Amino acid sequence: MDDGKRTPWIVGVSGASGTPYAAAVLRGLLAAGESVDLVVSRASRLTLLDETGISFRDAHWREDLETWLARGADGKPDTFAVDVSAVRYWAAGDLAAGPSSGSYPAKGMLVVPASTAAVAGVALGLSKDLLQRVASVTLKERRPLVVAVRETPLNGQTLKHMVALDEAGAVVLPASPAFYAGATHIQDLVDFVAGRVLDAAGVPHGLYRRWEGELGGATRPV
């Protein structure tokens, strides 16, 4: 949690399918009392519109973010009540934004979901937009970088890029839901992946039931 000087987690949302994962991660960070800097790529706006019907607009980002984060993974509006006052938004084309510099204070970056294009751009250091630039800065400053890859199947080139990210110090975290936590709803599967992203970042949460070494846990009531 932040004390005094604001030191946010930076969340980058790329154009891969899986905007509910990003929403769950953002809700988890805010619930933990973390400050968040948000970068939404141009491609992700199309995905968000396709998956939720929500248009994410620079001039109305706070209103659009509140609408997005309130929506459940099943598409039901007003499922969650979320305070976004701790969020700061940066346009994807703003390469002069604060997080583009290593001197900007940040705890690290979570790219969720991460498209194969975003994975390639970060692995190759292209910095073609603010999301990729911030990821490169995160690596060079030796801050935590979690990349939640959402694609299947994976070709050889993407696998090589993922290995390069791992070797550079990033956590490569495929968006792969598990079933041992007793999922009964699509939101449970989304929250499992979001919880694993937060685990990799060291952020406390209660998004899924943890494995405790006993078989049958998924069938027991919470």
Structural summary, described in words:
- The chain has 222 residues and is of the alpha/beta class.
- It is 37% helix and 13% strand.
- The chain contains 7 helices and 6 strands.
- Strands 3-2-1-4-5-6 form a 6-stranded parallel beta sheet, with helices on both faces.
- Helix 6 links the parallel strand 5 and strand 6.
- Helix 1 packs across helix 7 and helix 4 packs across helix 5.
- The longest helix has 16 residues.
- The model has no long low-confidence stretch (mean pLDDT 95).
* N→C terminal distance: 27 Å
| Number of continuous helical runs | 7
Task: Describe the sheet with the most strands.
Answer: 6 strands, parallel
- Listing every helix as H and every strand as E from the N terminus to the C terminus, the arrangement reads EHEHHEEHHEHEH
Strand order of the largest sheet: 3-2-1-4-5-6
Unreliable spans are none
How is the topology of this model organized?
Elements: E1 9-13, H1 19-31, E2 36-40, H2 42-52, H3 61-70, E3 87-91, E4 108-114, H4 116-124, H5 130-140, E5 145-149, H6 156-168, E6 171-172, H7 186-201
Parallel strand pairs: 1-2, 1-4, 2-3, 4-5, 5-6
